[in-house]
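Section 3.1: Structural characterization of target chains.
Under the original work plan, the team committed to producing a structural model for every single-chain target entering the pipeline before any wet-lab resources were allocated. The record below documents one such target. The sequence was received from the expression subgroup and is listed exactly as submitted; it comprises 332 residues.
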Amino acid sequence: MTPDPRDVGPVPVGDWDRAVGLISSADEIALACHISPDGDALGSMLALGMALRAAGRRVTASFGERRFRVPRLLRFLPGQELLSEPDAYPAAPELMITFDAPTVERLGVLAGNAARARELVVLDHHPSNTGFGTLNLVDPGAAATVALAEELIHRLGLPVDKAIATCLYAGLVTDTGSFRHSSTTPEAHLMAARLVATGLNPEEIARELWDRSPFGYLRVLGAVLDRVVLEPEVGGGLVWTSVTRADRAAYGLPYDELEGIIDVIRRTEEADMAVVLKEDDDGAWQVSTRSKGAVDVARVCAALGGGGHTKAAGFTSHLPVEQTMASLRALL
């Protein structure tokens, strides 16, 4: 018999079987992804949520932010009627499943709910995952968390329709950078083929994710690029910039529109590492880092309280920009 291409990875078969058993016996399943959800986090959660709902299961889904709002770029994803605000989330879930969160802190205000859950299943692909669940389905070799969500849906014996496939595909293409990043594996392409075969439109998904921005984004991008700094002597070359609340306020640009800026400055040929500091609505700096390979940014960000992947990671800083950058340079 030809092996199923999904039947790969370091997660033991017994752990998959236990996850299936927990889901099958639960009266209600509470799903949660990390705060400031990206395509992988929200896509994997909504995909499993829709598959379970179609099977007649009671499902709650959320992410732990008081300013509960799906990023504009992801509002095309189906299944968002499953979402509820954190205040409506079960206080002590019988079964809670998290998506794309390497630490319990990344669950935001739902971290307490996770601590009180009878069973906590963690789906993730971050090498920095701390194993905070009672059952951890973590595969650092997976291209994205949606690969683990697809595997779980498959093991539950549930079908993947066009709507579910759209959520999975969105997570796959965002986390692989449209199959440009080193996380792109043969399995990632096989997964893409399975999903496209459901009838989804890759062109429409790409347009929603990358080819639409409000005019204010261009004005903010211009201001941000005007203050970009290149430090060729630091860590194989460092290029960085910052985006303030004032930058965004001048053009009415929401915080979640800033995601693509790091992909612009990382193109700098003279720098291995790119950094963007984004001031959120509470005044904290959300720091995104990217590396072309000379620097393990996951280790750097972990030392500063964050985490992620070898070539893409982040952390939160409550220090001014220059102090934050000084801490980062010291590690490099």
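Confidence is low (pLDDT under 50) at residues 1-8.
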